[in-house]
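Summary for the funding panel

The consortium committed to producing paired sequence-structure records for every protein in the target list. Below we show the first two records in order, beginning with the earlier of the two.
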Amino acid sequence: MAKNTVITVAAIQQTCQSQKQHNLNRSKDKIKAAAAKGADLVVLQELHGTAYFCQSESLTPFDLAEPIPGPTSHFLSACAKEYQVVIVGSVFEKRSSGVYHNTAVVFDKDGSFKGLYRKMHIPDDPGFHEKYYFTPGDHDNIAFSPIATSIGKLGVLVCWDQWYPEAARLMALAGADILLYPTAIGWDLNDNHDEKQRQLDAWITVQRSHAITNHLPVVSVNRVGHEADSTGATKGIQFWGNSFISGPQGEILSQASDAEEETLMAQIDYSRSNTLRQIWPFFRDRRIEAYGNILKRSL
């Protein structure tokens, strides 16, 4: 854990278009503004450098992939160093020929690369054809391992991972000080208002529950705005924003709207996690000897 247990977190919710450098430059402006307001940690949304290309299956988006280190990671490293903030960013990673990942990268305040996390749970739903593009992260010491930085151990997960309590719990057991969820999620424009509200409520509730059951603060940062389906087969996706920062009891510290670009900021005190675990000792009372069936896909 960092020597200073209190940090200021910024979550940048923004729109994206097809031109990568345009998106990155706009992110840089927002990182600069957050740093000027005292941010120690800046979290960017999933695949923030590009439009959300997974709405359809096509060979063309593979041209967007890049290695790590590569152009986007060099750009984020320079931002971290210039503005003296820890940055969590996102890269469509080309790991090797035919192997691509949806990867979160972390840079410390001096610009040094601290680690990466390759998205483990990969969806394949209408409008979210990610299995076509992304290989799941490896089951090795990278999977569900916090990334150590000068401001604490960051439990970085990505989007679809946020629906799985196992991922959050493993990060907590491994010593994460905070859970971070860069995200790209939105509404099918054919859904009615009630269904859209149910989906949004479920998304917020499940992540707040990860905060509560693990006594960890959570930062969930989503993209916002309408992005067209490049094939024209659907009406596209309305990314629902609503990025939020919660404390370790699930309390909402800051939350964005469903329509506007916003930079959320909140103070997080890591020491509260230890206090809460003494009062509500969920970790002490786990019956690990009875959980063997959790490793089975179906009983």
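The next record, for a separate protein in the list, is shown here:
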Amino acid sequence: MRCLLILICSLLAMPAGAQRPARIAIIIDDLGNNLHLGRQAVALPGALTYSILPQLPYSAEIARRAHAQGKEVMLHLPMQTGDGRAMGPGGLHLAMDRDEFAREVRADLAAVPYVSGVNNHMGSLLTAHPGAMRWLMEDLACFDRLYFVDSRTDVRTVARRYAREAGLANAQRDVFLDNLQDAASIRSQFKHLLATARRRGFAIGIGHPYPETLAVLAAQLPTLAGEGVELVPVSRLVEKKRSERLWHASSSPLPTVAKNSRQ
């Protein structure tokens, strides 16, 4: 109720005709193996979010460096794929029993300091498995104020359904910036991210520490304010979406509003 009152007051305090800036969050995934590229990624301007693989040579160092610069840190949690690709250390797979699964989740969280949230690394098989997602979200809910972002590596994912059941704040990836490691393609995907945010009010993009991605972001991020777009940590968008659900639920019974609030 207190959060709802704060939201109502903030809306009433906005000048007539005022428009909130579109908000984006950008997650840099797959950090931990390469210290040089990790340092370059952390040095990028603005409130980027850094998702770090567990139990790799530079995982803890990159997390500490990001945190020292006021950046948000996530755990990039390896999960089993449908095509048998190697996950790397700390991976979760369907052959685990309940105790093994929980121990691995705890070990991975402990391997990356200053973690605020979690997203999946790969996981086309595991994120589509209801039992595994129920276990994962139950385990994450044991830690204070963690959130979950579904990277959506497979359209069959049920991760957010079980995050909601466990009471975890959650969101999902809207745009992959660099499926093609080509500067022109990355710039095009960056524009798509901005267009999504302008249309809907917010959007989440995921990129990787490729030299091409880092170069495009270094050039584009300083232009965001002039374009009326705000770069925020992922947690700000997760919280915003949670507030929107509370606002819609309290202000309108329309089915379309309820449907939108579940996005």
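Regarding this second record: The two ends are 22 Å apart (CA to CA). The first strand starts at residue 22 and ends at 31.
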